[in-house]
Specification:
Elements (H helix, E strand, L loop, with lengths): L23 H16 L14 E6 L5 H12 L3 E4 L13 H9 L5 E6 L4 H8 L5 E7 L5 H15 L6 E5 L6 H12 L4 E5 L15 E3 L2 H4 L5 E4 L15 H8 L3 H4 L7 E3 L12 H4 L6 H21 L2
Parallel strand pairs: 1-2, 1-3, 3-4, 5-6, 5-8, 6-7, 8-9
Bound molecules: phosphoric acid mono(formamide)ester.
Length: 316
Amino acid sequence: MSAHPQLDSQGRLQHLLTIDGLPASIITQILDTAQHFKETGADSKKLPLLAGKSVFNLFFEPSTRTRTTFEIAAKRLSADVINLNVAASSQSKGETLLDTVDNLSAMSADMFVVRHAESGAAHMIARHVAAGIHVVNAGDGRHAHPTQALLDMFTIRHFKGSFQNLRVAIIGDVLHSRVARSQIHALTTLKVPEVRVIAPKTLIPKDVENMGVHVYHDMQKGLKDVDVVMALRLQNERMNGALLPSREEFFKYYGLTPEKLAVARSDAIVMHPGPMNRGVEIDSAVADGPQSVILSQVTFGIFVRMAVMAILAENT
Ligand code: CP
């Protein structure tokens, strides 16, 4: 493995662990490959690109969208898909994560798709597995959710044509959000001219400006003339202590309502990674409204995850 934990010595993708440091050329390769799958009707026919390969889904945290779309994507590429039932696995008897991985590797695993509450879990597995086994991070703690950011970039490019001349605003719980961190790295790597984050001071990471974003605490100012609005889920499960007065107060000042959205460009798109807290970070009138592309994000996630797995398999 090269100094970069997810690329080999020739700069080819071996694992997808983070967007941080991922070259723009590889992000574009993934988006273009996903576009090819979308255009060639890969949603209706099986492709043989992962035939004979076994993909293990290891989800140690709940998931609806990511786990299911990885499974659909792997099956469309003709892989055998094994979903480890974590609650019924030997983890409950004290088996370590790496022992679990070793035992599944002994069953001829070719790829692990991993979601874990601990930041760095996917990196740890990637360092541990034998050459030729690929690891995809499906969300680790607060750290990264690379395929979510990639499907978000695919969605932006689909609706806006390119990343040039865009103003993008990310709203809400940036502090606890692996999605926001990965989105910011993707947007800045793709040279989006203006990336804003809008949140109360308590939900903004220290030194976030060093990531190349502009910070706003006021929705009226932060949403003014933006082309893309990305709402985040309030991560109640990762919140220690009283970072917010109440969910009602959060909605009053930072909930995305039609009135607040009205200062964005009239053709602005509204995105949310899901799951949504309706009436907390987003009003149903916006979530289900004409500017929402939230369900398109989910569909595009299948093509993007197919692309990631196909590129990894090709690089074996
Ligand atoms: N966006 C996302 O990661 O959703 P799930 O938790 O349902 O996978």
